[in-house]
Each structure stands twice: as structure tokens, then as C-alpha cells.
Amino acid sequence: MKKFIFTLGTTAILSAGFVGAASASTSGTYHVEKGDTLWKVAQKHSVSVDELKDANNLTSNIIYPNQELNVATIKEMTHKVQQGNTLWSISQQYGVTVDQIKEWNGLTSDLIYPGEQLKIQSPNGQAQQSSPSVAQAAPEAQQAQAPAEQTQTEQQQAQAEQAQTEQQQAQAEQAQKEQQQAQAEQAQKEQQQAQAEQAQKEQQQAQAEQAQKEQQQAQAEQAQKEQQQAQAEQAQKQQQPAESSQQASGKSMTVEATAYTANCAGCSGTTATGVDLKANPNQKVIAVDPSVIPLGSKVYVEGYGEAVAADTGGAIKGNRIDVFVPSEGDAQQFGRKSVKITVMN
């Protein structure tokens, strides 16, 4: 009898603990920090991992820093203990842990009784609370459930899930870090390629401009050269009619021409008319037969130009002339040839 009364007292104390443990539903959002896992967040807010996943439409246990998790829709509901129920079987039914059920209901042991109503925090549920009936209470010895082995198994399972979740999250963070690094390297590579292409484009443009400038300069020089040549040809052309007109006004004939110089051995360098050829090496003078061409006459010699008949020579007889040149080499180059001359006066 004393033991029965003690059990009822314990039940009353537990019931009072249930009433005092009633709390408002979890509200607001949670900002995920580095190192957080769903299991840690669930423990912090006294909910289960599945509740967090359902409340946030998550399909895996992976979360990321700075992610916002909704905990406002997680509410409490009640479970009426049935014959054969244990805290472990109830926790498996709702996807929570034994420790969470004990915390939500202010339990200090694993003992529960048929008819007792337990608060369970789960998405879209309603918070309800009632105390177990003393009349429905059974002897403590008959209702002892959830042995220590179950609690140990549950703890090991939770630790394994936590380790797996942390591993998955670490892998996800590593993958994200590698992706960001790959993107940064790709961006840097594209930037370097763009700079190289820009530099190549600028170099090609500079080369094209330089080539164009050189081409324009060459064209300008060519045009200037052609213009000067045209002017020279024009001047020569204008000069030729004048010479032709002078030639046409005199006596023309074809003669045999040779060349001589004043710098030969035994040569005085002075012509028959007194012209000092050594002092005037560029003077246009020819030696003639005075009976054919009078001394002092101006004579136009084809290929030599206008000259003065200012000299004579022992071998210069008839239609022969000897043209004066500055050097012996020039005389040898001139040789002997038939040329057309015109006596101008």
C-alpha cells in the first residue's frame, strides 16, 4: 500500500511537471552559422531534424552558413500513451529523441503510463496538455519501460547521424569552396585572355597604322620623284625644239668624230685660237678642218652638245672633227663614231 501511494505521488509530481513545462510554440527564423548542422539547430530549438526539414522543405541534412531556417511553424501536439508504449517507441514514431520528449514533458525518468498524454513538438500540430489519471495508473513495477539499452542505442544512432551530417556538410562546403575557386580561376583566365587579345589587337592596329604611314610616305616620295622627272623631261623637251630650230637654221652634215684631251704628253693645252683648255676643262671645243667649218663657228654636235670650232689638228681633214673632253679615259670611251653636226653660224 505504501508503495502504491508513493507511485501515485510520483505520478502527481510528474503531472504537475507536465503542466509547468507547457510553453509557446517555437517562433521566428534561425541564421545558420559556420559549423552548424541540422542536428545542432534542432537541439538548440528542442525540435527534431525531421521537423526542421519538413518546416523548411529540405530534402537532405546539408545546410550552409548564412542560410535562414524557419522555426516558426513548429508547434506542439500530444500523444496519448497506449499499452506497450515506451519513450523510445514514441520517439521513433514521431522522429524525435527520448531526451527531447523528456525535456518537453519535464520527465526525470523513462517511466510512462497508459493514458498519459505527452507533448510532442512537430510541424503543423497543436499544443495540447493534460495530466494522467490516477485511476488509470498502474503499479510502477508493471509499467517500467525503455531500458537503458534503448537509450544507449538511441544515443549512438544520434551520434552516427550527427557525424554523417557533419561529414556531408563538410563535403558540401568543400565542394562549394572548390567551385568558387574554379570560378575565380576561370574569371582570371578569361581576364588574362581578354587582356592578351586586347594587347594583340592594339599591336596589330599600331602596325597597320605604321604600315599605312610608311606607304603614304613612299607614295608621296614617289609622286615627288615622278613630278621632278616629269618637270625635267618637260624642260628637256622644251630645250630640244630650241636646239632643233637652231640646227635647222644652219648647215647640217655627217662627220667622223674622235675625241682628244689637253692632258696628253707633249700637248700644250692651248687651241689654235688661243683657248686654254687646261684652265677651262669643261669648255665645249672641237677641232675642225677650217676649209669645211670656219674657226670660231658655233657647231651643234649630236651626243656632245653645242661647241665652238676653236682648234685644228694635223689629222683633221675634210668631214672629220675632234671633240675636246676633260680626261684621257673620256676620250677612249668616246672612241670613233659618225655623228650629225649642224653649223649654226
CATH fold group of the largest domain: Membrane-bound Lytic Murein Transglycosylase D, Chain A
Number of contiguous helices: 8
Average residue pLDDT: 79
- Encode the helix/strand succession as letters: HEHHEEHHEHHEEEEEHE
Strand order of the largest sheet: 5-9-6-8-7-10
What percent of residues adopt helix (DSSP H or I)?
Answer: 40-55%
Largest sheet at a glance? 6 strands, mixed, barrel
Number of strands: 10
CATH superfamily of the largest domain: LysM domain
Number of domains as seen in the coordinates: 2
The CATH architecture designation of the largest domain is Roll
Class from helix and strand fractions:
alpha+beta
As residue ranges, the low-confidence spans are 1-27, 123-146
Radius of gyration, taken over Cα atoms and rounded to an integer in Å: 64 Å
Shape: rod-shaped
- The N- to C-terminal Cα distance equals 177 Å
What's the CATH C level of the largest domain?
Answer: Alpha Beta
Strand content: 15-25%
Report on the structure:
With 345 residues, the protein is α+β, with helices and mostly antiparallel strands. It folds into two domains: 2-173, LysM domain (Membrane-bound Lytic Murein Transglycosylase D, Chain A); 247-343, Beta Barrel (Barwin-like endoglucanases). Helices cover 47% and strands 16% of the residues. It has eight helices and ten strands. Strands 5-9-6-8-7-10 form a six-stranded mixed β-barrel. The protein has a two-stranded antiparallel ribbon with strand order 1-2. α4 (87-94) packs across α5 (98-105). The chain is rod-shaped. The N and C termini lie far apart (177 Å). The model is unreliable at 1-27 and 123-146 (pLDDT under 50).
